[in-house]
Design brief:
Layout (H helix, E strand, L loop, with lengths): L9 H7 L11 H5 L13 H6 L1 H5 L2 E13 L2 H6 L3 H20 L3 E7 L2 E6 L8 H18 L4 E3 L5 E3 L2 E15 L5 E5 L1 H12 L5 E4 H7 L7 E5 L8 E6 L2
Parallel strand pairs: 6-8
Antiparallel strand pairs: 1-3, 1-6, 2-3, 4-5, 6-7, 8-10, 9-10
Helix pairs in contact: 6-7
Organism: Plasticicumulans lactativorans
InterPro entries: A/G_cyclase, Adenylyl/Guanylyl_Cyclase_3/4, Nucleotide_cyclase
GO molecular function, one term: adenylate cyclase activity
Length: 246
């Protein structure tokens, strides 16, 4: 079940047990103090962003998390043959669809990387079912993109078809923290993040490709999902993954 907009910051409540209003009349004094809704998730506030100083002091914080990578397939060729304004509009539609699908499942959009998106589930909003929420977000994202008119192109037969979106999801323990020296950036790192990225690179347009660790927890969503062992660059041995479709 997708979450509805919260009247208080979920991150502040879960981590500090402090009810910070982010919607409604009670939020007005806080907005005057500069406390606003976070750009990472509209159910978080800017205090949550500064709360990451706790993470920064420790340099890295290891947590159980689920990572979702989504990529707009064929973007390079699309960009070469399309007006700049149309390409920007297409990217904005894709970003908006990603943000909506992730936010409704209590995830955060950590990065927009050109034609790709990195989303994190289970930090800073904690959920025991974060694996399931990530998969539901992935399926929802595929559906949203398929329905957006601006994310459609003309194929070789002159037919209109959706721009392909490839999604990869993996779960495990990863490190949250700052990277870089001259330019510091908050992100999630670890072998599980690399595996999620590689899985996404293998996903076909329209697919949500999930690892075996993920599928074991969500098999009821797609009980007859097809599995395959994929050789992945930089990963020792083939990796079993399951193909899910919205």
């Amino acid at each position: 079940m997708a979450t509805s907009p919260s009247r208080i910051c979920k991150g502040c409540w879960q981590h500090m047990h402090v009810p910070i209003p982010i919607r409604g009349p009670l939020s007005i004094p806080f907005r005057m103090l500069g406390i606003r809704i976070s750009h990472m998730n509209p159910n978080l506030c800017t205090i949550c962003e500064t709360m990451f100083t706790r993470v920064k002091r420790r340099k890295q914080l290891t947590i159980p998390a689920t990572v979702l990578f989504a990529d707009l397939r064929g973007y390079t060729s699309l960009a070469q043959g399309t007006e700049t304004g149309e390409v920007v509009g297409m990217l904005n539609e894709f970003y908006d669809a990603c943000a909506a699908a992730v936010w409704e499942r209590d995830g955060i959009v950590n990065k927009f990387i050109g034609d790709a998106v990195l989303a994190i589930f289970n930090f800073p909003i904690l959920r025991e079912d974060h694996v399931r929420q990530a998969v539901l977000a992935g399926l929802d994202l595929q559906q949203r993109c398929a329905e957006k008119k601006r994310l459609r192109v003309i194929d070789a037969h002159g037919e209109t078809c959706p721009v392909g979106i490839g999604i990869g999801i993996h779960t495990g323990f990863a490190s949250i923290g700052e990277v870089g020296t001259a330019y510091k950036d908050f992100t999630i790192i670890g072998s599980m993040v690399n595996l999620a990225s590689r899985i996404q690179g293998t996903a076909q347009p329209g697919e949500v490709l999930v690892t075996e660790e993920v599928y074991r927890q969500v098999s009821d969503l797609c009980p007859n999902a097809e599995s395959h062992a994929y050789p992945l660059k930089g990963i020792e041995g083939p990796v079993t993954a399951y193909r899910l479709r919205a």
